[in-house]
Amino acid sequence: MTEGNQQKLTTFLMFQGRAEEAMTLYTSLFADSEVLDVTHYGPNEAGAEGSVQHATFFLAGQRFMCIDSNVSHSFSFTPATSIYVQCADDAEIGRLYAELSKDGTELMPLDNYGFSTRFAWVNDRFGVSWQLNLA
Q1: Distances from the Cα of 75 to the Cαs of 4, 25, 72, in angstroms?
Q2: Does the structure show a pLDDT above 60 at 1?
Q3: Mean pLDDT of the chain
Q4: Are 122 and 129 a contacting pair, CB within 8 Å?
Q5: Highest taxon of the source (predicted)?
Q6: CA distance linking residue 31 with residue 60, whole number of Å
Q7: Is the separation of the CB atoms in 120 and 104 below 8 Å?
Q8: Where along the chain do the CATH 3.30.720.110 domains lie?
Q9: How far is CA 24 from the centre of its chain?
Q10: Which pLDDT score, from 0 to 100, does residue 3 have?
Q11: What's the rounded Cα separation, in Å, for the pair 49 and 2?
Q12: What was the pLDDT predicted at 135?
């Protein structure tokens, strides 16, 4: 994971005050993950002091960016766009499902749906949508 090998497309997540908490959770769940840089709002700046002005992080080797919006919006995350995770084994899908669904919303509980023997779709506690599939 190096900035020199930037991917052309980067997922950008806009939170409303919980970006750092989300990054910390996400990077703890996936190998090859780390927070690269975080810039916080300072006193008398546009955003709430200490909230994330801009951050870059890797999840499983993929680059993501996020912010805490300093503007209140009438929209948030939607399940129409989700992060799709191809899990290596039953232990991984079970662990990710437990952590990502905690205090979130279960859209499709972990089960056999015919198209996959183990699949789940959840909105996590921050509103980000995740599809978990056992390869």
Answers
A1: 34, 23, 9
A2: no
A3: 95
A4: yes
A5: Bacteria
A6: 6
A7: no
A8: 83-134
A9: 10
A10: 54
A11: 29
A12: 81
Token pair recorded at residue 70: 């300093």
Any alpha helices (H) in the chain, and if so which ranges?
19-29, 90-101
> What tokens does 71 get?
């503007």
Q: Considering the entire predicted model, what is its pTM? A: 0.91
How far, CA to CA in Å, does 107 sit from each of 58, 82, 104, 115?
26, 12, 10, 16
Q: Residue written as tokens 């910390």?
A: 24
CATH number of 83-134: 3.30.720.110
Summarised one tens digit per residue, pLDDT across range 12-57 is 999 999 999 999 999 999 999 999 999 999 999 999 999 999 999 9
Q: Which two tokens stand for residue 105?
A: 């919303």
And the tokens for 42? Answer: 């300072």
Architecture of the CATH domain 9-68: 2-Layer Sandwich (3.30)
